[in-house]
Amino acid sequence: LQTNQVDDFELGIRFLDDLGSFLLEVKDKDVKHAVAGLLVEILLPVAAQIKRETNIPALISFVGKLYGPTNELASKKQHKLAAYPLLTCLLCVSQRQFFLSNWVPFLNNALANLKNRDSRISRVALESLYRLLWVYMIRNNCDGNSATRTRLESICGSLFPKGNRGIVPRDAPLNIFVKIIHFIAQQKLDFAFKDVIFDLLACNRSQRSLYPERMNIGIRALMVIADGLQQKDEPPAMPKSMGPSASGTMQRLKKKTYITRPLTVDIARAIGLDQYYIPCRKAFDTILRILDTQVGRPLMMTAIQRGKEPDELLGGDVKPKLDLFRTCVAAIPRLLPEPMTYTDLIDILTRTTVHVDEELRTMAGNTLQNMLGEFPEWREHIIIAEITLLHNQLTDFYPAVLDEALRLLHQMVMTWKSAALQEKKKEQEKELTSENNVHAAPPLYVLNYASVLHAVEGLALVMLCQIRPQPRKIAISLLKEVKQIISILSLDNTDVPVITVLDEATPYVVRKYIEHVPMYERMSWNMDFTSICEKIAAIDTDICLVNSDKGNEYLQWDPWACALSGYAERKHLLMRCPSAVASAWPALYSRLIAVNAYVDPSMETDVLRSVSSSLRASSRIPSSASLSQLFTKIAAMLRWENMIDIRDSVVLGVGSMSAAAFETFFEDLSQRGILRDAMEKKMETNVRRRKRKDLLRLQIIRIIEVAVFRGLLESTMIDSLGNLSPFILDFIDSMRANLESDLDRDIAVVTMMRLHFSKLVAVIIDNVSPENRANLIPDEKKQSLFYLFIGWCSRTIASDKKNRENEVGSYVEQKAALAMTRLLSCGRIFEAQKSIGEDGYLYGWLEKLVSSANTTMQGEVEEMLAWMLELNESSHLLDWLMAQCYCQPSAVAAKCFRALVRVFSRRDFPCEFISLFVLCQAMLGDPNVADAAVHMIEILKRQFLDNSMVLSPQLAPGGGNISSPPVQLRSPVVTSSHSHCFPMDQQAVCRNLANSYPHLTITIFSEVSCRLEGARSQNQTNLIALLLPWVENIELVDPVAGEDACEGPRGWGSEEATQLLLNNLMYLTVCLAADHERELAELWRALALSFPANLPVILNYIYVVTVLSHEALLPYAKRVSVILAGVVGNRIAALLLEQLSTSSDSSRLTLERSDIPPYYKWKDEAAELRKDPIVEISSPMRESPMGDRFVGLCDDASKEGVRLLPMPAYGGYYSRLCTYLPPTTQPVQFFTR
Questions:
Q1: How many CA atoms lie within 13 A of 987 on its CB side?
Q2: How many CA atoms lie within 13 A of 270 on its CB side?
Q3: Which of 587, 595, 594, 620 has the alpha carbon at shortest distance from 461?
Q4: Is 641 or 351 the better-scoring residue by pLDDT?
Q5: SS3 of 1204, please?
Q6: Contact 1073, 1057 (CB under 8 A)
Q7: Which end of the chain is less packed: N or C, by CB atoms within 10 Å?
Q8: Tens of pLDDT, residues 358-402
Q9: Distance from C-alpha of 1138 to C-alpha of 832, rounded to nearest angstrom
Q10: Where are the domains of the chain?
Q11: What spatial distance separates the first Cα and last Cα of the chain, rounded to whole Å?
């Protein structure tokens, strides 16, 4: 009905009047009731819209017409349900006087019907009562103090009987009673509190008993009244609907907003509630405590009895108490109990978050989040309380509850982050607006935030040990949120955020610990912790990569456990996040002890799957009875024979313990006598006991191996002088003695022991830098270990090049060979004089090792040789290594050469300069090491020739046109890459060297001649090639060769140099012509072309060797002549014709054989007749290179420009050309030229 315009209103009332007439006339009961219901539906909205009384005659007439007949109907039982609502509506739209005159009898009737056995009638009576009360209190403003009080006492006495535990009617909705109290409070606030709410909340009673419905109504009424007063709301509207609305009815309800901010004493005073508020809070305190005792703690999901259904638990007397509990939780933090401390309140709410009632759980979580936002100073305790609950009560036996609590903690931390962002924003705005712009100090409560955040990280670390993926995902989200909060709050008293450490450690962990998939696949992963967590969880272990043959079988059962072991290495979490680790440890330990209770070591059961996860992150282990019990069980499980997956997990877990825990564990083993049994050298006679002892030894070896692998060596097993601890040394020695014999033992166990013992020795040495290994293991123990390993790995280092990798011995042999290589680079070598002295017994084994076709060995050789050389400074070893560069295939030679370069790159090293200088030039021919060779040449130049610190332009091909950056010396690593910044052309580099240092020419030629004789074919090619630029420096000097030798430009030379060069070159031609004819021809040509004086000397030498041994050397003399004729044919012809035309040349000199190089001598017969000393042009050992007594034709030439060429030490190396010459006793058959 339109009530805005009188005409419209009157029109509607006429319609109502017609309906009223029809109601009075109709006799059918059902129709009468339907018409009455229709009138109620129309009148109720009208009554709600009327703010004051209406003076419209039509309405007054309508009320007067229907009131009497309807009152009569109400007295009849059959019409009561229809008449009560209509009578109520008529009173509600009537004038004030009519209402006050007629409502009392109806009120009394309604109050009497509240106790009616028919619940429908009692409910209708209540609905009528609370609408009439609204009209009485709100619209009509009561009717005098005493009368009003009497009415209100009567109403409240009926609804809330004194001394009764319940309300009347019992099953009515509580919000009706709340509204009734709200209506009363609009006019009579004092009455509403002192006479109604105080009674409902039992404020004036001290007994500890609950009246759930009454207290529920009292708390809700208090909240509604306080909200209305604080928001200065208009009086509440009249309740409209009296029942379910007809289908299709549109209802527009103004949404009520409730205040969540705390109702403080100051606010209560401001809105006039101060005298009532404190008693209510005290009552609220009592109610909360009783509720927690009766339906809080007993109904936590961790406390309920198994086998009971939720309906059974939450029904009966518990239901109203739970309703009251929900109201109380919803009222917080608006209403806070007094004198309960906030810590007690938070503890109650935190426990409630795992209540069996879902609605209560949700409300408690929301309340805690509201408190996080409202009370910054409480945040610390709220988070700590939730973490404590998770640690102490939510064990892994309640996975669903645990997940829900974790999600709640994540929501809380996110709420904290949002609040912190808003607070920071406000603070920044305040700073901008403040005049002095002085940064205010943060409140004191911020100082504790660091410890709380680290406690959250500690919990997350515990959850990362879960085998289920859901807690791990939440844990990662928590860690990310904590990092953001630390950043927002700009805290400077925190450790590094855990997620940062995990992200930074991830590449290291994936490379080192995740052996379950191939390396190329791992390298394609995103290297952040979140991605890796998902990847590792989904790993399908490749048994070809992780198995007992490879000695990493303890990794195969749980890839995630392996990863956690890596993250918990000392240098990562333990060192960088001590606070988080410290807060994680108690929870880990309690979980470990919880699992421990279910493990019976005498029965190999499938329970202890996650023990390694718990042991792994331990930062310390307390001394306690439970710990002793735990160690007892671990010791028993290490002997298990069948449950190998659990046993392996225990090995990984114990090996992953921190330094303090590890020492404690081994002290315990020692006290129990277990170590003594394991280290006993005497052979056990009983086969069964022998196998059990061997199994125990194997597990202890593996535990120490895992511990060393994880970096525990430095902190627990090595003293300040670099000595291995006596316990580890004794253990290794006892295992060595034990493994020397495998007679009558389980071959599978012994094989595993050998494999892991080899790995243990290797990993111990690997974990100490080579410079600090000098005192690690005593020499005699190194030697005995070496001989033990060499007996195991003969096939792996076999020199048969046809062996493929899968044919060269088992993994045991490979690991033994690796251990041997480590022993050789562990300080100075044992028995240095015998092992690596001249003809040392190690060289044969080393040669097999460097030439081994096994890929594992090939990867180890280079580093081993480098450290052996550096640590021992052995000239014999250096000579052997250079010899390997010449006599081994190019791939092996390259490794040996790189090992040399490594040593010289690190420091100045005593060496024989020329040998290395020649080697470097030869290695320039191998593209794999050409850059290393240039680097080495620079080192040698700086050490022996000049002070140049960078690559001189003359060394690089193309002279000064190189634009690439200089190569810095002392690079710690020499690359083995095939690509270079510019092409390393051997000829160009050697030519520049020859031009820069011509005085070294004959020394280098001598060294090359020596090296060529034992070198492989490819290396011979490189050696001959390097000679070409050097030979071009030489001018041959021979007094017998004739006057022509003194014409033209001059070079470097001497008679001794000429004899050595021609002797060696002829020898090489004889020996190597078949394989290297082209390279040798180049040498002869270069020698003939370099200086005019050289050709006559060469021809003279060809004449000499032909005379000395025409049978053996004539073919080669012819071959050299043909080679020379190809380039200087005309000159040769001219020289030969000149010699044919001269008179006999044998007038003074005759040729004789000699035992000493150059294996011949000229004898001057004329001088002999004059009794002068013989002039022998064959003295490489004389003091002066040219000789004072030299009588010949070139005496003047030496003074006219031939630069004297220094000879090598001891006259240089002469090739054994005498093997092709007849014996000295046989007379020389002389030919003229």
A1: 7
A2: 10
A3: 587
A4: 351
A5: strand
A6: no
A7: C
A8: 999 999 999 999 998 888 889 999 999 999 999 888 888 888 999
A9: 64
A10: 1-161, 173-241+257-361, 375-427+445-589, 624-827, 1003-1166+1198-1220
A11: 151
Q: In this structure, what token pair is assigned to residue 130?
A: 């609370």
Q: Where are the alpha helices (DSSP H) in 656-797?
A: 659-671, 674-678, 687-709, 726-739, 747-766, 779-792
Q: What angle do CA 239, 240, 243 make, to 5 degrees?
A: 105
SS (H, E, C) 180-227: HHHHHHHHCHHHHHHHHHHHHCCCCCCCCCCCHHHHHHHHHHHHHHHH
**Secondary structure of residue 747 in the 3-state scheme:** helix
Neighbour tally for 583: CB within 10 Å: 23
Does residue 1052 sit in helix, strand or coil? strand
**Minimal CA–CA distance to 63: which of 50, 80, 81?**
50
Distance CA 1081, CA 1085 (A): 6
φ/ψ of 557, rounded to 5, equals -80, -30
Q: Output the six-digit token pair for 795.
A: 């096939």
Among 868, 760, 851, which Cα is nearest to 797's?
851
CB count within 10 Å of CB 340 equals 17
pLDDT tens-digit map of 158-184: 999 988 888 888 888 999 999 999 999
Q: What is the mean pLDDT of residues 460-469?
A: 90
Structure tokens at 994: 């020859």
- Greatest alpha-carbon pair distance for the chain in Å reads 183
Residue 997 burial (CB count, 10 A): 17
> Phi, psi at residue 303, to the nearest 5°?
-110, -15
Instruction: Count other C-beta atoms under 10 Å from residue 319's C-beta.
Output: 13
Per-residue tokens: 657: 């313990």
CA distance 532 to 559: 11
Residue with tokens 């991830």: 506
Q: Are 159 and 110 in contact (CB under 8 A)?
A: no
Tokens of 882: 């250079």
3-state secondary structure 878-929: HHHHHHHHHHCCHHHHHHHHHHHHHHHHHCCCCCCHHHHHHHHHHHCCCCCC
Q: pLDDT class for 1116, splitting at 50, 70, 90?
A: very high
Dist CA 373 CA 378 (whole Å)? 9
Query: For strand 1160-1164 and strand 1149-1153, is the pairing parallel, antiparallel, or unpaired?
Result: antiparallel
The pair of structure tokens assigned to 303 is 């406390």
- Other CB atoms within 10 Å distance of the CB of residue 4: 7
Closest CA to 820 of 859, 780, 864: 864
Q: What is the torsion angle, in degrees rounded to the nearest 10, for the CA atoms of residue 129, residue 131, residue 136 and residue 137?
A: 110
**Token duo for residue 378:** 């409480």
What's the pLDDT at 633? Answer: 81
- Parallel/antiparallel/unpaired status of strands 1052-1053 and 1203-1204: parallel
* Start-end of H helices in 1091-1109: 1094-1108
Q: What's the DSSP call for residue 774?
A: T
Tokens of 60: 């007054």
pLDDT surpasses 50 at 609: no
